[in-house]
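Our collaborator T.R. sent over the components below with a one-line note: 'Predict the complex.' Nothing else. No constraints on interfaces, no templates requested, no preferences about which chain binds where. So this is a plain run: every listed entity goes in together, and whatever single assembly comes back becomes the starting point for the next discussion.
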Amino acid sequence: MFALVANQKVVRDWPCFGVVLGGSFLPRGGYTVLLFKMQFMLLFSRQGKLRLQKWYVPLSDKEKKKITRELVQTVLARKPKMCSFLEWRDLKIVYKRYASLYFCCAIEDQDNELITLEIIHRYVELLDKYFGSVCELDIIFNFEKAYFILDEFLLGGEAQETSKKNVLKAIEQADLLQEPRHEYFNVPVY
Amino acid sequence: MALRRMPAPIRLRELIRTIRTARTQAEEREMIQKECAAIRSSFREEDNTYRCRNVAKLLYMHMLGYPAHFGQLECLKLIASQKFTDKRIGYLGAMLLLDERQDVHLLMTNCIKNDLNHSTQYVQGLALCTLGCMGSSEMCRDLAGEVEKLLKTSNSYLRKKAALCAVHVIRKVPELMEMFLPATKNLLSEKNHGVLHTSVVLLTEMCERSPDMLAHFRKLVPQLVRILKNLIMSGYSPEHDVSGISDPFLQVRILRLLRILGKGDDDSSEAMNDILAQVATNTETSKNVGNAILYETVLTIMDIKSESGLRVLAINILGRFLLNNDKNIRYVALTSLLKTVQTDHNAVQRHRSTIVDCLKDLDVSIKRRAMELSFALVNGNNIRGMMKELLYFLDSCDPEFKADCASGVFLAAEKYAPSKRWHIDTIMRVLTTAGSYVRDDSVPNLIQLITNSVEMHAYTVQRLYKALLDDISQQPLVQVASWCIGEYGDLLVSGQCEEEEPIQVTEDEVLDVLEGLLVSNLSTPVTRGYALTAIMKLSTRFTSVNRIKKVVSIYGSSIDVELQQRAVEYNALFKKYDHMRPALLERMPIMEKTASNGPTEIVQTNGEAEPSVVEAKHPPPVTQPTNQANDLLDLLGGNDVVPVIQTTVPTKPASAGGELLDLLGDLSLSGGPAPAPATSVPSSQPAFLLDGLTSPPLFNDIAAAGIPPMTAYNKNGLKIDFTFERANPNPNIAVITIHASNSTEADMTDFVFQAAVPKTFQLQLLSPSSNVVPALNQGTVTQVIRVLNPQKQQLRMRIKLTYTHKGSAVQDLAEVNNFPPQSWQ
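Returned assembly:
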């Protein structure tokens, strides 16, 4: 594993000759980069409008914007016949289009692209079950719900629950806790 | 005094609807600004009722790209509220608007701590989720204890979240890993799949980070095997079923953990052998989900110490993947085959024709992988067929592939060429079809190859001459051709070619072509240098010396300093040193390749006037520093590599050599009676010449290693290529030479290259050739990296580049992951 910050432990492990390395080496100061990890997920429309952004690595707003812009451009430029995976910077990008929305995940080197496609599909199924035949408008007008569902399915970039039923049940229960309590939980609360 | 009450802020959905009616960007911005102003006022009034609504709106506007930092503190207030609705939006806002760089985020810590102990599990869940997504090191340190407590709870809803939260804590603060160890005791006895899945993730994390943990958890292999078996054998379980497969996510994670536990360990590998075979043969392959599991299984089989039957099974699965209609599957297959081609070469060879077919795929990523894999599969038996396909690919592929493909072709040709004629034909084909994409160091390599193929000189120069008549735009081709014409122009004019119909060409025609290169706009300064030197050399091979004299004297006043210098010196040769001219410009002798720490070291073995093959009397010392070789090339029209490593190899002035050296600079042309050049490596050699590099030279050690070069970095005009070889005595050391080149119009000065590698490696950086990367690709900075990789792990490297460009300091960091497998296996 890499340890990017030159903390005591790391420096001791390296030989003392010839290595040229300063302190904080990368912008993610102190963050150790792993090889299996989802770094972020983006949802965007065919016009490039962002509908959801979930970041599992600490980056500044500026960096996020830059990454989003570049990646959206890259993915939108792909032709339909191309495969769902591409290499971008040092990450693997897994993307799939559902109707007018692109679901795009960035995973690390050793991760399994095919199972990531399944993760994306599972998330779409959850949204579909929750909203009843979900479409882009649902996600636009209820973006906070889309986040809540995602946060019940993934945590820190990993799946926390593999049962569709359980994720939906948790969301349902949490919705019922919202105040003011309404009979129909999808009446806007705010 | 009554407070002026503002009307209730508009609802979130209404705002969204309104903003979407905006027809222009300007209109949208106006609406947003208006609403933000309203929200700001509302925040200032400390309005508790509508804070949630306002923050939600702010989050929407933030997603559209507008600044929302003024809502950060409001998020904290929402988190601290007692209402669940507030907390939900507050935590969402925190995850979107706050990050660990700002101290503000630390204010969350206390709230999160309280919420982790809340009576409602959904509140605890919010806290765990937030901590697990964005908790900083400080927060993790403060709250690790709470997470650990929740990891031991019987509430599976919380336990699964706590496990992933623990993963995050460990990633941020690795020293805390130990404290989670007790809680992992019974994690795998859980029935709940959510907890099982996250537990496996946690165990994986711990095993990856600590060899001690890894050893400790090896005892879980039987249990993991059992769980996996149950998943496969169990009947339909509606809750976890995906297209007939039971909980594929869990299966994949278990397979991955097994991989880590089985790696390098015979017993564990044996214990999982059967289940892997079972998964490999029984998994349904009609849908992506089944293939995802098979893929993970293949990766595991290849990584652990599996028996050969299992490995063949795995490769065959990949072979079947290659034939799958789904391009994603094909892509994944090619990637995996690339990883296994070194260790299971014969098995992969069986799928060669399918792989070659993938060169014609439409998808760029598939094509690239197919190309890399094809090169890895080339051997003495299939070279002719493979090369045909690869050259065809080179003709038609995108420009981004051409450089790598060309390099690959050269390397493969060098290793396996069935005949010299074939070799030269192949080179010609590459130069004529992809000539402008060929790497800079190909030119000296090719020149050396051509020089050594003595019987092909006439054929080569004729073909190159004909190519020049067609096209003078591709610089590497032009440079090699100029050099050859300069060397073998006499053969060209005398029509001596045996291999094919000799062409009739006169001296004047040849000189026309070379002079044409000098004046053409298409020629780079380097090419002009080659051309001028070639013309000069022809003065001893042709009869029309006067014409040559005229050309040379014209360029004595060229604006290009390099050309001017050459011309002036050649002029002087004509005038004052004419007696030396024949000796100086005679045919180059055979150049021997030596094992070296970088691009081919060209060492001159004998300066006597014999153009035929000269065998070295005894192996010349290997470590002629790079720049001495470059000086040789420099005089004879070589590339302009900036020589910096001070040579301390003594030069051998012949009797007249003193003046020779004065005139022509630091050239070690051992034209004197002394036998070989410096036979001993003087002890005053600079300290950076290490063992492993002073061993006797082996021909073609580089080609024998056969590791394709790669581009590690290419940004803002700075390109860094890596070339590889093995240091001879120690196969665990990979010697990488970086070549930094600069395609912008300004030099890059104060260039510093730094590198870091993962902990299991050791790295040594030798001194760079220079701190200046000259503009317009006029030269490269080289530097040697030696990497010790005793565990044969996959090589990854982070590099940091600093330089000054056009007055400003530039710094960049990058990760290099695309090392070819041969460089670390």
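Summary for T.R.: The beta strands of chain A are 38-45, 50-55, 85-88, 91-98, 101-107, 154-155, 158-159.
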